[in-house]
Amino acid sequence: MSDCLFCKIIAGDIPSSKVYEDEQIFVFKDISPKAAVHLLVIPKIHIVSLDNLTPEHQTLITHMMLKLPELARSQGLDDGFRTIINTGPGGGQEVGHLHMHILGGKGMPGFN
Ligand code: AMP
Ligand code: ZN
To answer: Which domains does the chain have, with CATH numbers?
Structure first.
């Protein structure tokens, strides 16, 4: 999608701090980190949110989930991490391109 911020980041039109990339996903540091480690894991294809998934995305979503622990460990999060997926305005989603947040380390906010 031409007017999507995260599609522009994948294309390299907007700079980002890339951590990992493969044929299906792109991973970069959140520009406004809520903890010492705050990554965003996004699919290279434009999917708006979890609300827009179809069965054909099953392999992609599984790939994203399976990568999370490896990505967290690569940032030094050896004793665990938090994963957040905001969906739609009611879920606090601000960017309309599906993304999984990985958070951990110092300064991680409480959940309650
Ligand atoms: P959400 O509220 O779940 O939609 O999260 C969107 C996230 O994208 C927020 O944590 C923002 O800080 C982050 N963000 C927005 N613009 C950028 C950018 N240009 N580079 C990296 N992260 C960004
Ligand atoms: Zn997009």
So the answer is: 5-104 (3.30.428.10)
What is the per-residue pLDDT across 3-39, written as a single tens digit (0 to 9) for each?
999 999 999 999 999 999 999 999 999 999 999 999 9
Label residue 47 by pLDDT band (50, 70, 90): very high
User: Annotated catalytic sites, by residue?
Assistant: 99
Residues having CB closer than 6 A to ligand 1 are: 5, 14, 16, 30-32, 40, 86, 92-95
Question: Which atom of ligand 1 lies closest to the CA of 95?
Answer: 4
Q: Give the distance (Å) from ligand 2 centre to CA of residue 79.
A: 32
Q: What is the pTM of this model?
A: 0.97
Q: What is the DSSP letter of 89?
A: G
How much distance in Å is there from the Cα of 95 to the middle of ligand 1? Answer: 7
